[in-house]
């Protein structure tokens, strides 16, 4: 797992500086709930996860809801004291780990606990990540009854040998059945895919796309495999047991994905995300990309309120112990300066279709914009209308363009 970022030590009660409340009424508020439990730890994953049966009393799945309720109480008082409370929650996202390793009535209960403390918008988006092998019709119906309206399912691939390399345990043949259960319950369906796994051929990737798009899917996320240090896969690559993903292969597979997904009637709205329309975008992720306010609950979760970024103790035991002691689980924070906030605004908005206004960039950026258009990285019509709108090649070169644009900040 990656190390926590460095930062200042926050007060033990987790109180925020008054600056966090400035302009809060004009910003959205989202909630992220981190569920750290997994059945097995995938070899490529460096998220803050733990196999579900390895955690003892106080930090186990049985203790999770009670511990989370303590952090919910803390968040309400902390936001109110900073002048950032009394706002409707627009999105809620349960991530992990595998949230659906918790019993369905536990996830439903957490939603009850949230409603008891926060006002929710009438059109609140409530998403949970899920592995296909943790779902059945009864489980999904319980979630729907509790207010969940979106499931983001970790499909990753439809090819058994690719799933085996990723240490994914679900049966790919079950994907269409689970997808049908989700849609029959009236929930939106997003499928998560990974491309570039060692040993994955172009035909393998096309098959995964074909299977994903053969379902009544509302949203697709497709991410290139990143081999992280400290993971099982990272060690295997370092020892030469697996090859490092090839950049040209990754680019080819991205172009194949965009062509197939676009042909199915979906449109990209962020470099790695496609939806059937604006109404099926992941609004929770849009909140992140727009630097809105969000509170992250659970072990290792990160939060951002009014330019203050803070993060919880990573291990479920340490997180629970601090809450039981009536202390904040937050162990570090960073108050972002104006330059850092502007760099992050550009870095995030440049990856989104028609999100970054050209007239919001520093004057010195204009020559770079003209160069990007000549290089075929930006859409000329979009630029004429005042928008930073990457072409297909521009999406592949998004980091390059951001690096140049942020030099003017």
Automatic annotation (TrEMBL):
Any single Gene Ontology cellular-component annotation: cytoplasm
Gene3D superfamilies reported in the protein's UniProt record: Aldolase class I (3.20.20.70)
Pfam families xref list: Radical_SAM
Example of a GO MF term: 4 iron, 4 sulfur cluster binding
CDD domains, per the entry: Radical_SAM
Domain of life where this protein originates: Bacteria
Record domain Radical SAM core: where: 23-267
Subcellular location(s) per record: Cytoplasm
Biological process annotations from GO: porphyrin-containing compound biosynthetic process
Keywords annotated in UniProt: 4Fe-4S, Chaperone, Cytoplasm, Heme, Iron, Iron-sulfur, Metal-binding, S-adenosyl-L-methionine
Stretch list, region Disordered: 1-21
Predominant place of localization: cytoplasm
InterPro entries: Aldolase_TIM, Coproporphyrinogen-III_oxidase, Elp3/MiaA/NifB-like_rSAM, HemW-like, rSAM, rSAM_sf
Function: Probably acts as a heme chaperone, transferring heme to an unknown acceptor. Binds one molecule of heme per monomer, possibly covalently. Binds 1 [4Fe-4S] cluster. The cluster is coordinated with 3 cysteines and an exchangeable S-adenosyl-L-methionine.
Family: Belongs to the anaerobic coproporphyrinogen-III oxidase family. HemW subfamily.
PANTHER family in alphabetical order: COPROPORPHYRINIGEN III OXIDASE (PTHR13932), RADICAL S-ADENOSYL METHIONINE DOMAIN-CONTAINING PROTEIN 1, MITOCHONDRIAL (PTHR13932:SF5)
Designated name of the protein: Heme chaperone HemW
Organism: Brevibacterium linens
Lineage, broadest ranks: Bacteria, Bacillati, Actinomycetota, Actinomycetes, Micrococcales
């Amino acid at each position: 797992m990656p190390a926590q970022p460095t930062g200042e030590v926050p007060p033990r009660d987790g109180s925020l500086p008054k600056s966090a409340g400035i302009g809060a009424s004009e910003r959205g508020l989202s909630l992220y709930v981190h569920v750290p439990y997994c059945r097995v730890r995938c070899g490529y994953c460096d998220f803050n996860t733990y196999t579900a049966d390895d955690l003892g009393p106080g930090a186990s799945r049985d203790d999770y809801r009670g511990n989370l309720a303590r952090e919910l109480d803390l968040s309400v008082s902390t936001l109110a004291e900073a002048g950032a409370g009394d706002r409707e929650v627009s999105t809620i996202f349960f991530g992990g780990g595998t949230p659906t390793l918790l019993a369905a009535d536990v996830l439903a209960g957490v939603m009850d606990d949230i409603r008891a403390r926060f006002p929710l918008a009438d059109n609140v988006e409530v998403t949970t990540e899920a592995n296909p092998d943790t779902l059945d019709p009864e489980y999904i119906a319980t979630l729907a009854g509790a207010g969940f309206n979106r499931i983001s399912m970790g499909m990753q691939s439809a090819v058994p040998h690719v799933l085996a390399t990723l240490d994914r345990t679900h049966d790919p043949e079950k994907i269409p059945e689970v997808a049908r259960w989700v849609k029959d319950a009236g929930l939106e369906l997003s499928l998560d895919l990974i491309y570039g796994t060692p040993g994955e051929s172009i035909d393998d990737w096309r098959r995964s796309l074909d299977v994903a798009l053969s379902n009544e899917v509302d949203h697709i996320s497709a991410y290139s495999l990143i081999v992280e240090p400290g993971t099982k896969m990272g060690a295997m690559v370092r020892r030469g047991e697996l090859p490092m993903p090839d950049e040209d292969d990754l680019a080819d597979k991205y172009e194949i994905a965009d062509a197939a997904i676009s042909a199915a009637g979906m449109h990209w709205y962020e470099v790695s995300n496609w939806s059937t329309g604006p109404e099926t975008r992941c609004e929770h992720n849009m909140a992140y990309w727009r630097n809105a306010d969000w509170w992250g609950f659970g072990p290792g979760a990160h939060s951002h309120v009014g330019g203050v970024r803070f993060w919880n103790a990573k291990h479920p035991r340490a997180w629970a112990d601090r809450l039981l002691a009536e202390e904040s689980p937050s162990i570090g924070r960073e108050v972002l300066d104006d330059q850092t906030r502007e760099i992050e605004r550009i870095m995030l908005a440049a990856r989104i279709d028609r999100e970054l206004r050209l007239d919001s960039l520093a004057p010195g950026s204009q020559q770079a914009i003209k160069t990007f258009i000549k290089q075929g990285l930006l859409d000329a019509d979009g630029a004429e209308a005042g928008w930073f709108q990457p072409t297909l090649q521009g999406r592949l070169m998004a980091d390059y363009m951001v690096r140049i644009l942020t030099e003017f900040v």
